[in-house]
Amino acid sequence: MIHKQFTSNIISWYYSNKRALPWRETTNPYFIWISEIILQQTRVSQGLPYYQKFVAAFPTVQDLANANEQDVLSVWQGLGYYSRARNMHKCAKVISAEFNNAFPESFEKLLKLPGIGPYTAAAISSLAFSNPTPVVDGNVYRVLARVFGIENNIADAKSFKLFFDLSAKLIDPKEPGTYNQGVMELGATVCSPQNPDCAYCPVEEVCFARTNKKQKELPVKIKKKRNTNRYFTYLVLKQNGKLAMIKREGKGIWEGMYEFYLIENEAQTEINEISSSVLSHLLEKGCVIEQEEQLPKHILSHQTLYSSFIKINLKTGNDWNKFLAENGLVLYSQMEIEALPKPVLITNYLNSVSKSINLQD
Ligand code: SF4
Fold first, then answer.
1. Does ligand 1 come within 6 angstroms of the Cβ of 279?
2. Active site residue 69
3. Contact 234/310 with Cβ under 8 angstroms?
4. Please, what are the domains in the chain?
């Protein structure tokens, strides 16, 4: 009963409250796919003009497949993180050559395409083809944990199945895409992490957290103690030819060494799933991700490090001094960085990008 009420309230709320966006007015998988890729770590207001420019330049998947890479990258220019554009181009070529320009409909087949992860595959499958494939992202975890009083730790990879299975029961088979978008939109606009606006929530009557005043306790997110595999994402912040680094504090093998701003994840994490207030702040301020670089795994005596580096130019026009200082970061020139003590991992990265990172500009 609660399940039915939840689903129908979400759907009718979504119809009257959704933000009007062009990719929400279509079931064309090509347009939905473009919007999902553009919106990875990009705000809607920033991504919208790029979406419009992109679909105007390449109106079909075939047009994109036939385009040359330079043209694709020049339309993408300014949005940053160019591997997204390169992967889209690659993916369009596969769809053109192997699927006769028609997107595959199933989640499993979509997942095999270049640059498409579980979240994007579920979004395309449900929004474009009305398959009842649940989308589970941070918003969905939060809304469901609160409404159904789920106390499982969402940082534990095993919890994904529980939320996926519950979503599979809740999803409306007639309108799976609307349901998926509705839950995500509710999490993005009403059921926010810090101050959920329960008085305006369409499911407040059935919400466990609202009834029991447990909004602050749910969802439960407890990071596990370190295991032998560790997953690092470094933010490489660049300004006027200098890079921001931080001195590592505390006990440990890297004590006193210099590195970039570190986000440690529980598992290998797609860029759009990284949860970091620092990264969110940078994107809010209009900075764009310029490049993502993955290094081969780095084996230490007691742990294996999987690391990726996200390069971001600090947007001019903002005063970054306070932000850098608050996060323990200091800008260093290339010569200064060479003289700093650094973990081998950081040196490997700097060597691998020495040509492309261009500290002279
Ligand atoms: S009632 Fe409040 S806590 Fe519950 S889902 Fe709505 S906004 Fe979130």
1. no
2. no
3. yes
4. 2-212 (1.10.340.30), 229-357 (3.90.79.10)
